[in-house]
Design goal:
Lipocalin, two-stranded antiparallel ribbon, alpha+beta, signal, 296 residues, 18% helix, globular
Length: 296
């Protein structure tokens, strides 16, 4: 292969790597975090009544993504909205446009995804329910603790990625009310949808039977959205022995130098991922920086 051909091949690989990283980094991380375990199907789910812990349903277990069409597209907070379009305010529309054009996916840079993003994610998670505290353990070695002790929100909570979370029971429904989020450091989902420091999230978790965990979530952010966003999905109980594993996002993060801004390609079905990037982009021109910067 001549020097010009070598230069072109290297350039095309560089461009393709950048685009693939931008599209699929979160999915690649999820696959590693879950050790390649596929999503469950209904035939894999154990049958039986809802287990109980004292007077409440026991929500504990390893919960994994459902393949059901009603739970897709994964990662998209607007999955149940026409055209997957959320009700942006002008400020929200501008923030979304900025994320798409200028912001690298924060999770790809090892920034915590927080809520509501983790609730839309393709990641499985482990839930450990206690009497006065419930823990959610995620596949990025990320966790959140939800107190269930009757406390109220602080007057001025310290901003965090998961917000100040307070749990309570409404009959057999576990309710989490969260405020006090960090501003725009994170995306609200995997599609670069934004949230502001005015974010307020209410989660309602139920376990209708042994094998299913259901979430009804309301996301309020009057700065960026004209109305509350309603989101729901169902997880399936993982196989015996499944659990979260240690995962160091920043260790040998070879993707970081190649990641472009925005969420990458999103198909007409609202789904993201490597398999949606076809065909590859056209070859770069001879004046493209990836070509001109590679030595003979």
């Amino acid at each position: 292969m001549g020097s010009r051909s070598r230069k072109y091949a290297l350039a095309l690989a560089t461009v393709a790597m950048g685009i693939l990283s931008a599209v699929g980094t979160a999915y690649a991380q999820e696959a590693q975090a879950n050790r390649g375990r596929p999503a469950q199907t209904e035939t894999d789910v154990p049958k039986g009544p809802t287990p109980r812990l004292g007077t409440h349903p026991n929500l504990s277990g390893y919960w994994t993504t459902s393949r059901s069409a009603k739970d897709k597209p994964i990662g998209n907070l607007g999955k149940d909205y026409p055209g997957y379009k959320l009700p942006f305010t002008p400020a929200g529309d501008a923030a979304h446009k900025y994320n798409v054009e200028h912001t690298v996916d924060p999770e790809a840079l090892c920034i915590l995804g927080g809520i509501p993003r983790h609730n839309a994610s393709g990641l499985g998670f482990q839930l450990l329910q206690g009497e006065d505290q419930t823990a959610f353990l995620y596949g990025y070695t990320t966790y959140r603790f939800v107190p269930v002790d009757g406390r109220k929100h602080a007057d001025d909570p310290d901003p965090t990625y998961f917000g100040e979370e307070i749990g309570s029971w409404d009959g057999d429904t576990f309710v989490i009310d969260s405020v006090g989020f960090k501003g725009t450091q994170t995306w609200a989902d995997e599609n670069a949808d934004p949230h502001s420091d005015q974010l307020h999230v209410v989660e309602r978790w139920t376990r209708p039977d042994l094998g299913h965990l259901h979430l009804e979530m309301i996301v309020e952010d009057p700065k960026f959205y004209t109305e509350p966003i309603h989101f729901q999905r169902t997880w399936l109980l993982g196989k015996a022995g499944q659990q979260v594993h240690e995962f160091a996002c920043s260790e040998n993060n070879v993707d970081a130098p190649h990641i472009g801004p925005g969420p990458g390609f999103i198909g007409p079905d609202g789904q993201r991922g490597y398999e949606n990037l076809a065909p590859l982009p056209p070859p770069p021109s001879k004046n493209h920086p990836a070509v001109t910067s590679i030595p003979e």
